[in-house]
Design a protein that fits this description.
Mean pLDDT: 89
Number of strands: 8
Number of helices: 12
Low-confidence stretches: 1-9
Strand content: 15-25%
CATH architecture of the largest domain: 3-Layer(aba) Sandwich
Number of domains: 2
Largest sheet: 8 strands, mixed
Helix content: 40-55%
CATH class of the largest domain: Alpha Beta
């Protein structure tokens, strides 16, 4: 039996997997792979791959594995990355603007903030962060960088805070949505996601399940839409005795509504409050 999961995430789930078969752990972050290998050091059936889950089909082909029994995708930034302040994911403290999950890539948050034009910045902050003050934030970023480059998380936070009226700064930290948007842009987290979900389903054996944990509405929407399309829907008129539209189904959606963390878990782990789990089973 082959299993497939994110090496840097969901380690408690992964630890419970059977000792039989193969567990393939993929992560863009080499530090996350190292942390995972240390926690799973007693398991001899794990392969660690430094790559992007968007490349799942090619990864499996290189390993000469045609289909897998299960896939777990734990999306977004990990608690480990957030807690490592020098990575620049957190809006707390003062650190270099980085936000790369894969440190080998060239694009950083510093590049985005200092080189994107005002309109592109505003669109990214609005689209990926759903920030209503995106245009004001983008304008102030562009004004500030005329004086000197914006290089630290603290500089960016200060610009964001002065861009949002105090009366509107009541829904969490004012920099939360903008930091999310810049991180998504740096790591290209949303654009390939729909295709990744569809490809992952094709990589499953019959009866195999794809489990995806999302942490914000953009991810969840992409996963939900991909599941609906993979399930297939007949578009024939109701009065036809049989289907002529050629609709095909790749499987069924197990979770009509996403599974969320229990009240107890949310109290013990505040970061679980936004987590949603959706499951799809291959025909």
């Amino acid at each position: 039996m082959e299993q497939f999961g994110g090496a840097g995430h969901s380690l408690e789930i992964i630890k419970k997997l059977s000792s039989q078969g193969i567990l393939i752990g993929i992560d863009r972050d080499e530090e996350a792979l190292t942390a995972a290998s240390n926690k799973l050091k007693n398991f001899q059936n794990v392969k660690y791959i430094h790559d992007n889950h968007d490349n799942i089909k090619n990864i499996l082909e290189k390993l000469e594995i045609e289909k897998v029994d299960g896939i777990l995708l734990d999306l977004g930034v990990s608690s480990y990355q957030l807690d490592e302040r020098n990575r620049g994911f957190s809006y707390l403290g003062e650190n270099e603007l980085d936000m790369r999950m894969d440190k080998s890539q060239e694009l950083t948050a510093k590049t985005v903030i200092n080189n994107y034009d005002e309109e592109k910045l505003a669109n990214i902050i609005y689209q990926y962060g759903e920030e209503r003050f995106s245009r004001r934030i983008a304008k102030n970023i562009c004004e500030e960088r005329k004086n000197c480059p914006i290089e630290t998380t603290k500089q960016l936070v200060e610009i964001i805070e002065k861009s949002i009226p105090k009366s509107k700064q009541h829904d969490g930290h004012p920099a939360k949505r903008t930091f999310q948007a810049i991180r998504i842009e740096v790591n290209n987290e949303i654009q390939p996601l729909y295709d990744t979900v569809r490809t992952s389903i094709k990589c499953l054996k019959s009866g195999g399940r794809l489990c995806i944990i999302t942490f914000h509405s953009l991810e969840d929407r992409a996963v939900k839409n991909a599941y609906i399309d993979a399930k297939g829907k007949c578009t024939c008129p109701n009065d036809l005795p049989y289907c002529v539209c050629g609709a095909k189904s790749e499987g069924r959606i197990i979770t009509r509504k996403p599974i969320i963390a229990s009240k107890r878990e949310q109290e013990e782990n505040s970061r679980s409050k936004s987590a949603k789990l959706r499951i799809f089973e291959k025909n």
